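Following up on my earlier thread - several people asked me to post the actual chain instead of describing it. Fair enough. Here it is, all 125 residues.
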Amino acid sequence: MLAVATGGAILRYHLYDIDPVINNSLVFGAMAALVTGGYAVIVTGVGRLVGGYGTLLSLLATGLVAVAFEPLRQRVQRLADRVVCGGEPLLTRRCPGCRHISPPLPVDCLTASAQPSPTRSERVR
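Reply from S.P.:
Thanks for posting it. Predicted structure:
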């Protein structure tokens, strides 16, 4: 019971900066299952239709899975982002535990560094 409560608190309040780890685990797990399942379905389905399992069929299945991999990975990544961080894209996340926040623009850095530092009397206020 304590482990379940601790896990729920870690996930709910974004403790230990674990959100990126959970996000990557969801993406890699889903992709492994989808690629393996897709390959198995193509090889067995087409093998039964054609009436045999050969090297050409394996190459065809491998090629189809490889072509479908990147669009599928992008969709799974968006779904994982939605589950973990409320759907914000990878580079613009603002949730507390995510480290993938886009860096400031160079102009903003220059403007901030050009501002005069406060005097002692202004800092005391």
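Residues 19-50 form the longest helix (32 residues). That should answer part of your original question.
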